[in-house]
Design a protein that fits this description.
The chain has 17 helices and no strands. It is mainly alpha-helical.
Length: 371
Amino acid sequence: MSFKGEKMKKKNDHRRIEGLDFARALAMLGMFIVNFGVITGSTANGSTGLIALQNLFEGRASAVFVMLAGIGTAFMTRQARDTKDPMLIRQNRYTLWKRSLFLFAIGMVLYAIGWTGDILHYYGVYMFVAACLIVISKKTMILLITIILIVSQWLQIQFNYLAGWHPTYVLLEYLDFWTPTGFTRNLMFNGYHPVFPWICFFLIGMLIGNLDLTNRTLRKGLLATGVLLVTMTETFSTVIIKVTTVHLLDIESALYLFDTGPIPPNMMYVLSNSGSAIVLIVCSIYLVEKCKNKVIEALVITGQMSLTHYVGHVFIGIGILIICNKLENQTLAFSMLYACCYFIGCVVVSVWWRANHNRGPLESILRKWSP
């Protein structure tokens, strides 16, 4: 009985949770909406409602993406963590380091051809660092996350967050990216997804991935934690901005320190977006478990090919805009509609591709490179 129970437990521990793939697909849609909005210059060219909707996706979709990567890393390294087998730990680290190099290389290629909003080279660094942390305790991980948040906030106060960015094309062109100083500054401090503090999303994902996400009671606790974290952070942010602007700070400084927007990614931003990411992920798991239909299945498959589609949206998605002469001065309604249509195209392609292949094109290459 004991052996059978252990065998069943092991089987359940390694069962794929398709809700995570579903959440990844939704995060990818959010990234498309944000990225196509930025690349077409339409983020402020729309109604108040559309701008608010665009702002809702900005930063949050990417945070979900990174947190899911942390969860996946925790799943992959669970056996090494549980057994403390030195050889298995080394194997897992080696695999993660190879994957991080693969992602970093692709990201640098994308940046070199002009996609300055790339997340993959940051993603590769998060994974490289996380590979060194796969067996640390939960308490140590929480302490590390806390330290990173504090250091990140200190850096944002101590140094000029806009250093390196073009004075006219702010947050669109980084002037000294290809220099050692500029590259390090962009990577660690003030790029689109700097290690300080963006790696926190990855590490929080690793913490979540250590939990039994098939346990419904635990998931309810996670969901409540996510909702509470978003509610408290957004409320505190609103109140502290109003209070400090009365006597202590000008509005620009207060927003810089306490707003929950992605620029800069301060402590309030990380806490709020961690909460919303947890809510989306847990709700996605529930939805996929409760609703099995063709649409859900198609989105799950799409999420499993997210690397291919992310790279594809740079070459194909933006390429279509260039060919159609729609790359600049578009309305927000146009860029959102285009993002949704492009995403639907990704879903169709995913279903077609998976009818004959086990993995997406880039996903297959990644597995062959780092099995």
